[in-house]
Amino acid sequence: MAPIIELRALTKQFGKGKETVTAVDAVSLAIDPGETVCLVGESGCGKSTTGRMVAGLLAPTAGEILFEGRSITKLDSTAFRRYRQAVQIIHQDPYSSLNPTQTVRQIITAPLLHHKKVKNQAGSESRALELLEVVDLTPARDIIDKYPHQLSGGQRQRVAVARALTLEPKFIVADEAVSMVDVSIRVSILTMLTRLKQEFDVTFLFITHDLALAKYFAWNGRITVMYLGRIVEDGPTQRLVSDPRHPYTQALLAAVPEADPELAHHKRQIELRSAEIPSLLNLPSGCTFHPRCPYSVDGQCNVRRPPLEAIAEGGRVACPVRQAERVTLLVT
Amino acid sequence: MAKAALEWHTVQNSTPQPPLSLDNVHVSYATRKGKVQAVRGVTLDLLAGESLALIGESGSGKSTLGLAVVRLLPETAAVAPGSIQYRRGDREVEVLKLTKAELREFRWRDCAMVFQAALNAFNPVLTVWDQTWDTAKAHGWQDKKAVQTRLVELLRFVQLDPKRVIDAYPHELSGGMRQRVLLALSLLLDPQILILDEPTTALDIITQRTIIKLLRQLKEEQHFTMIFISHDLAIAAELADRVATMYAGRVVELGKSNDIFYRPRHPYTLGLIRAVPTVTGGFEQLFSIPGSPPDLINLPSGCKFHPRCAFATDRCKQEEPELATVGPAHEAACWNWQQVEAELQVKPLHRGALNVLADILPAAEVS
Amino acid sequence: MGAIQGFFRSVGTTLRLMTYNKAGFIGFLSTCLILIICLLGPFVIPLDNKTKLDQIYQPPSAQHWLGTDHQGRDIFSQIVHGGKDVIYVATVAAFLSTAIAVTFGTLSAFAGGGTDTVIMAITDIMLTIPLFPLLAVLAAFIRLDNLTFLGIFLGMLSWAALLRAVRSQALSLKERDFVEAARALDLGNVHIVFRELVPNMMTYIVISFTLALTTAVYTQVGLVLLGLVPVSSSNWGVMISMAWTQGAIFYSDAMWRIMAPIAAIAIFQLSVITMTRSLELAFNPRLRTIV
Fold first, then answer.
1. Is the interface score ipTM higher than 0.90?
2. Residue A101: which of C183, C191, C285 has the nearest Cβ?
3. Least CB-CB distance to A81: which of C177, C186, C191?
4. How does the average pLDDT of chain C come out, rounded?
């Protein structure tokens, strides 16, 4: 089965001349229909930029995005608009992703009516109520005439999801969709998204900096780790979380604070050589992680960009030096 | 990097009395729509040298309580009734009755508050040195050299390069560096108590770990008494000796860290723990808490958590429970805490984590 | 149907929000009162056109609330009749300049690139041209006696500053997530400009409209005083002009004749400006939580 979304050497640069910032550097990734893929990394790693390029909101500088096998950069404007409708995005900030001057009704019926997904006004209202029920905003009649500021953060995110569903998309990019929602509500939104995946046959790209959440949401899927615009490791979640191979992934997993005292006191401490994150304007040569990497090999790591290679245990790793070494994350 | 010893820091572990005692503290705001009851009767003792985590979500009152201790609440807030007693050596003062001058002394010498390191925690036109010197001067220090020496020592302690940071403006520093500068500044006058509000929120994961390590050092090596205010359970698990969970302006459970995480007795605490995933702990089914936090102007009757509680009974709708002992040094405000205990016998917490740990530890400390 | 209900609901909400700011509410009531007097008053109170030589420059009395002018005519009735033209022209001018500024300001911000550069260049040129000298020159070529035409004329010359402000607001709004969501949903540029951007700028637009209104009133009066507009009917500006040229400021008896129209204009301007305090509240969606 062909991947639904495929990124080939996708690159995005901002600025000109000396001030050029390479936010995304030759990222290659394939996502199969129905797969759950998480893109994780710290701020500045390029995951949001990648997500917006996939959603057709930002034009790539180089490389290709293929949707159902066809390159989207080569599409004519009508076909490109169809692509943009098939791929939707859910933003991070529930306080700015909804127009404060519109009611929920207006927000959801606008795309339905604009793209003639319904026959008339009455049809749009009943479809809007249906969608609100799908995202667990019940009773829908109570919510539909409210303004965004009358809803909680979690409710707003659900409205954003309902809005994304109006065009029956095949692919949804969720960009930090639960980061600004209360902790006790996050799980219910993630459960709702998983249900949507099954009921509506939607494939998700879940972008987050929260590794624990990524592990939970994509337990049966994949995680891709990015650092300074490049993929450093990806693979099945269960493998990546228990047996990370790239030193950055290991440092990241070791650094995540755990909501469990026993785990917290038995985690391996990984010291990086430098606490400073390099600026995107002045990236280190070769492997961009080498100044901080405890295993850096002079003459190799600071010279050649490591290729992203498949490993037998599943997934790919961009570290020829350490890709065969296992590191346990919990110690006595 | 060599660790500074902070020799000038005196440890108060010998005090028999707790350095901070809150007694029935209430905080309310008057708004157009009515009175917002942000904190409704918190009674708590902070023991010498301990780290206490105040955990709660938006609207729980945790930040308000922290600000009330250092009296940094806006004019519209009324901190009454209630009292906040502070003790150091022979001194004992009622914080809520301090004069302005006494308060200024209190805020840096006795109890320092470390805010989230957003850019607006700093004056953007002052360098780190300027801010330090301003603060020191305001508290009576005259000797520039002494202040500079102490600042350099503190910056080294928080693992920053003093040469790089002393003359930098806030916008030239990264989020993690700013948080560390705030921490260093708070230690300048050798306070007894540190209150940290969301110390790791909005920081990158690896930076968070550096801050946590630093705080752990402050705790274990320097024996500072600390209060962490956060919505993040993980920071409580990493750093706290005792944890207090807050809901709708009250402490609903208080106990040692292990008791809270493995043997909670309040349905809200249980709900929170069941809603948060771990990274290294294998797979564990998570559950949200249904409903949403209550309206602080129109609170529900009885126990404020009852509309969202799976254990709620009729009594819960009528009477609000007080904190009651449910175990050694463990209190919970719930009429049905024994049902919670029974539920945990059947479905213990973090089974996945314990399985993972069982692999590496011959006899893991099983709850 | 829903739209009509929505409209009435928002009118009701707006009225309620007007009461929130005391000064603003007084301004609102005052503006309404003046509008009623000026628009409906002329039907109720006849204009006193008869010359009565025995009643020249009478002080205010029960018969003549504001006294009489140099021909014995009742000043109060002149004031009542003199407002509608001034207000009409000002409204037309404000409406047109706001419409131009909003449409082209948001278009410029949204389209960017060449369109933006061209529009901004024109705007900058307009900003540097002084209004009155331009009007003086144009008045030599164009007859400005038609009220609507005068309004259009003023409107076409005063949109520049507002356009810049609208453009910068739109530029910042453009980056908001909900605008990006509208792009992802492929709702089209027209929808984005008029349903996403403009409603979020309403506070600013409405306040700018009222300020344009007050500016237009002053401009009109200035034009009349400079003799650039033919004096065809009696309105507040004309009353001031006539009183001035006939030396009313030199006679204490004639005080009412010159002060009445000045006061009328001043009160109108003050009411409108004070009203904007409440208007701000009315259009700021975050404050709708209070209602």
1. no
2. C285
3. C186
4. 81
Q: What is the mean pLDDT of chain A?
A: 90
The answer for residues whose C-beta is within 8 angstroms of residue C83's C-beta and 6 or more apart is C34, C37, C38, C39, C41, C235, C236, C264, C268
The answer to whether B206 contacts A330, with C-beta atoms less than 8 Å apart, is no
| Three-class secondary structure assignment of C193-238 | HHHHHHHHCHHHHHHHHHHHHHHHHHHHHHHHHCCCCCCCCCCHHH
Is residue A199 within a helix (H) or strand (E), and if so which, with residue range? helix A183-200
Q: What is the mean pLDDT of each run of 10 residues along chain A (332 residues)?
A: 89 87 93 93 90 90 91 84 90 90 92 88 90 90 89 91 93 91 87 90 92 92 94 94 93 92 88 84 89 90 91 91 87 78
Contacts of C289 in chain A (CB under 8 A): 149-150
Identify all chain A residues contacting B233, using CB atoms and an 8 Å cutoff.
183, 259
Which residues make Cβ contacts (< 8 Å) with residue A172, sequence separation at least 6? A87, A88, A89, A90, A164, A202, A203, A204, A205
- The answer to whether the Cβ–Cβ distance between B234 and A259 falls below 8 Å is yes
To the nearest whole angstrom, how far is the Cα of A209 from the nearest Cα of chain B?
A: 8
- In order, the DSSP letters of B31-48 are ETTEEEEEEEEEEEEEPT
Category of C207 on φ-ψ map: left (φ > 0), alpha (ψ -120 to 50) or beta? alpha
Neighbours of chain B (3+ CB pairs under 8 A): A
Q: Taking the domains of chain B in order of start, what are their residue ranges?
A: 264-360
Give Cβ neighbours of residue C20 (< 8 Å, ≥ 6 apart). C278, C281, C287, C290
Q: Select the residue of B277, B279, B286 nearest A253 (Cβ to Cβ).
A: B279
Mutation target for C interface from A77, A88, A101, A105: give the one with most C CBs within 10 A. Answer: A101
Nearest residue to B305 (alpha-carbon basis) of B319, B324, B287: B319
Residue A139 preceded by cis peptide, ω within 30: yes
* Residue B45 β-bridge partners: B21
The domain defined by A5-242 carries CATH number 3.40.50.300: yes
B322-345 average pLDDT score: 92
Q: What residue ranges do the domains of chain C occupy?
A: 12-45+72-290
Here the tokens at position B92 are 């004992």
**Tokens of residue C190, six digits:** 């027209």
Q: Is B275 on the interface with A (CB under 8 A)?
A: yes
Contact assessment for residue A209 and residue A179, using Cβ atoms and an 8 Å cutoff: yes
Domain C12-45+72-290 = CATH 3.40.50.970: no
CA distance C145 to B322: 82
From chain B residues 206-235, the ones with a CB under 8 A of any chain A CB are 206-210, 212-213, 231-235
- Nearest Cα neighbor of B63 from B253, B187, B195, B182 is B195
Is residue B43 over pLDDT 90? yes
Amino acid at C90: A
For the four alpha carbons of A82, A87, A88 and A89, in that order, the dihedral sign comes to: negative
Let me know: does B217 contact B274? Beta carbons within 8 Å. no
Contact A330 B207 (CB under 8 A): no
pTM metric for this prediction = 0.82
